[in-house]
Every structure is written in structure tokens, then in C-alpha cells.
Amino acid sequence: MLETVGSLTGSPWIYAVVAVSILFDVFLPVLPSGVLVIMAATAAAAGTGAATGTVPHDVPDILVLTLCATTASVLGDLVAYRLAWRGGHRLDRAIARSPRLGLAQERLGAALARGGGALVVLAGFAPAGRSVVSLGAGAAHRRARDFVPWSALAGLSWATYSVALGYFGAHWLGTTWLATGVSVLALAGAGAAATYLMRRA
């Protein structure tokens, strides 16, 4: 897979692949969007020529990659939010049948009512967290101005962290499967920590 991602780094398609993966991750949390971002950043680090002193022009730009991942994350959250807003009684019944969604909706409402959205930011790192929070905020008809800024901060935090893991991991450990594996484990560790903190909130 690393070779496949690496082959895309010479074209703008790498940004499209990353964006689509992150956008749909809110509906299909099993998509490896985080792994894909890390691999793209690793491939970018490999192409910067840090070891040889040469810098080719056909590698992803780290800032553009971060912006692309952030934008896709926020757009995915907004689509889920709006769909849940218009979901009607069917979605309400689905949330009522799901203790996880119901609890998340209750906690999110309390967090936004206090003027804080740390839960939204944490959810960006937790497995399926974006789905639960975005759907919960929409189903509860939370105001967009209370949700969107925190969603943007969550997307930026997650994207920056994921890109940094791939990029600096490659510089420190080399562009090997070890570097990618360590970076993915660090991302999973952040997800586990976010899940733990969300449950204690």
C-alpha cells in the first residue's frame, strides 16, 4: 500500500484520494483515512530529498496536505450534521435504540451549552467519534455556530497530528515500514486516549 500511495505523490490525485477517504470516514469509520494521511506524509518526506540535499517538485506539499485533510474532515462533519438535522423521527428512533449515540448526544449538548467543545475535538481522534458527535449534534438541532468552529478545530488538530506523525516519523526513522508502523501506533494511541477521556467526561 505504501508503494501505491507513493506512486500517487507525483500527481494531484493524492489530495483527492486523501480528501475522499476522510470525507466518507464519518459515514464509514472503518476507512483507513488516518493511515492514508500518514502514508501520504511519509511519501512526501521520502520525496523531499532530505538525505541527498535535492528537493524534487513532484511530491505533496505538507501544508496543502494538512489543509486538504482539515477541509475534508469539516465537510464530512457538516454533511453528517445536516443529514442528522433533517433525519426526522426515524433518526430519533435510531438514536434512542443506541445507548452510545444517546449518551454522546447528551454529553455533547451539555458541553456546547457550557460554551466548550473539547468533546468535539476529542471525538476527532476517537474511532467513530466524528460520526457519533456529528450525528448527535445534528439530531439534537444544535446551532451550527456552536458546532462548526469546534469541528474545524478538531479537523485541524487531527490533520496536523497525522501529517506530523508521517512526516517526522519518516525523517527520524527513515521511509520504512517501521516508521509507518510507529506512526500508525501513535495515531491509534491518541485515539485510545481520546476515547478514554470522552468516557470520563
Describe the protein's topology.
Elements: H1 2-8, H2 13-25, H3 33-47, H4 62-85, H5 88-97, H6 99-113, H7 118-123, H8 129-139, H9 144-173, H10 177-200
- Extended strand count: 0
How far is it from the N-terminal to the C-terminal residue, by CA? 37 Å
Helix proportion range: over 70%
> What Rg, in angstroms, do the CA atoms define?
18 Å
Helix and strand succession?
HHHHHHHHHH
Class by SSE composition: mainly alpha
Strand content: under 5%
**So what's the oligomer here?**
single chain
**Number of alpha- plus pi-helical segments:** 10
In short:
The protein is mainly alpha-helical and 201 residues long. It has helices at residues 2-8, 13-25, 33-47, 62-85, 88-97, 99-113, 118-123, 129-139, 144-173, 177-200.
